[in-house]
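Duplicate of #3305? Posting structure anyway:
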């Protein structure tokens, strides 16, 4: 009769004199297993079995299919304690990030807390971190490219408008060029004084930009500037630039800082409509001057 566990026949159950007798009583498969594990006699087999039992006593058993969600969660929380860093995750930065990429250290620290709460393995946390940073880098790169493209288009539009106005009015230093730009600017001022403030709208369209270091005002949209100049000449003709400077100091006589009673009087009598506009531009109430 053959023992099922070790493949030892009944006649070999007598006390075994040495290890060779033990191995010789095994079949080939069991003999290979015994040799692999260093089993030279039944005692060594029993010692190995006892050691295996000790290991299994402290082993974590996987939940079976019948385990509830709470049991599975508890199991994961238990085993994740062995790898979750107590002091938080230390992330390595992915390669090939944009040079000026604004890495958010505060958010990374907050995400580290989330990863710890979820019991993520450090390698899994690093992988998620890299995915997040990579996606943010994509958005950042797209935004930078869009901003650069818009800046190039604005520069090209300004250059095109500059050439267009030069062809029609002359160089930026010329009186004709400066006059049309000044007319457009003054038209915006007058429209604002009458309650129609479109300064922001024209600024968004790049109609007028701030003066540069040389005092020149770069124009980005010649059509918009011509439109404002047209409005100036046709809607505020009585208060045109020529009329403003003719026979006056060029300053608004109704302005608080430079009151000129003589010019005020002449304007109120000869050009009441123009006087009304200048009073409003100065931020004062025309009713005070009975116009």
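Output from current build:
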């Amino acid at each position: 009769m053959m023992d099922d566990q070790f493949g030892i026949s009944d006649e070999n159950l007598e006390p075994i004199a040495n290890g060779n007798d033990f191995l010789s009583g095994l079949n080939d498969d069991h003999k290979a297993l015994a040799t692999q594990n260093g089993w030279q006699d039944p005692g060594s087999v029993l010692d190995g079995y006892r050691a295996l039992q000790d290991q299994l006593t402290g082993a974590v058993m996987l939940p079976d299919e019948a385990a509830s969600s709470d049991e599975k969660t508890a199991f994961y929380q238990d085993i994740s304690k062995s790898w979750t860093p107590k002091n938080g995750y230390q992330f390595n930065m992915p390669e090939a990030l944009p040079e000026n990429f604004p890495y958010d250290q505060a958010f990374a620290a907050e995400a580290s807390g989330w990863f710890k709460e979820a019991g993520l393995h450090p390698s899994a946390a690093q992988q998620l971190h890299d995915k997040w940073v990579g996606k943010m880098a994509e958005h950042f790169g797209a935004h930078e490219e869009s901003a650069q493209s818009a800046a190039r288009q604005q520069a090209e539009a300004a250059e095109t408008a500059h050439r267009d106005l030069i062809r029609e009015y002359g160089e930026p230093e010329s009186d004709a060029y400066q006059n049309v730009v000044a007319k457009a600017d003054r038209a915006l001022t007058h429209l604002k004084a009458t309650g129609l403030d479109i300064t922001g709208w024209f600024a968004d369209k790049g109609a007028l930009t701030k003066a540069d270091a040389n005092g020149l005002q770069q124009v980005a949209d010649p059509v918009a500037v011509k439109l404002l100049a047209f409005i100036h000449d046709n809607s505020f003709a009585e208060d045109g630039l020529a009329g403003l400077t003719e026979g006056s100091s060029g300053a608004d006589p109704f302005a608080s800082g430079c009151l000129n009673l003589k010019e005020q009087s002449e304007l109120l009598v000869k050009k009441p409509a123009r006087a009304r506009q200048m009073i409003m531009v100065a931020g004062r109430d025309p009713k005070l001057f009975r116009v």
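Confirmed duplicate; merging threads. DSSP finds twelve helices and no strands in the chain. The two ends are 131 Å apart (CA to CA).
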